[in-house]
Specification:
about 120 residues; alpha+beta; about 20% helix; about 40% strand
Length: about 120
C-alpha cells in the first residue's frame, strides 16, 4: 500500500480517493481500523483507473466492512487532504440505509465498529 501511494504521488502528482460515512438507525457512524494506518477511519480508499468515485466507494464498503447500500450514496463533498499530501483529493459519501454481513478481520482491516 505504501509503495503504491508513493508511486502515485511521484508519477501522477495527484491521488483520488473515496470514503463513506455509514450511519445506523441510532445515528452512530461506522469506522474501520486498518493495519497500515493509526486510529479509526471511514471505510474507503483509492479510486482505481477507469473506476468512478461512486464505484470506488461501493467497492471499498464491500471490501472493508461488508456493507451493501440499499439507497444511492449521497455525495457529501470533495475535499483536499493537504495534511497527508498536497495532491490528495477525497470524495466523501453518506449512506443511511444498508445491509451488513458479518465482518471477519483480515490483513488490511483488523476491526469494524459503530461509534456514537
Amino acid at each position: 500500500m505504501f509503495l503504491f501511494t508513493f508511486y502515485s504521488r511521484i508519477a501522477r502528482g495527484k491521488t483520488l480517493g473515496a470514503r463513506v460515512a455509514v450511519f445506523d438507525d441510532q445515528g452512530r457512524v461506522l469506522l474501520v481500523k486498518a493495519s497500515y494506518v493509526r486510529g479509526w477511519n471511514l471505510p474507503g480508499g483509492g479510486v482505481d483507473p477507469g473506476e468512478t468515485l461512486r464505484g470506488a466507494a461501493l467497492r471499498e464498503l464491500r471490501e472493508e466492512a461488508n456493507v451493501t447500500p440499499l439507497d444511492r450514496l449521497q455525495l457529501h463533498g470533495i475535499f483536499s487532504n493537504e495534511r497527508v499530501f498536497h495532491g490528495d483529493h477525497v470524495a466523501v459519501y453518506v449512506c443511511r440505509k444498508f445491509t451488513q454481513t458479518e465482518f471477519t478481520a483480515n490483513v488490511e482491516i483488523t476491526a469494524v465498529q459503530f461509534f456514537p
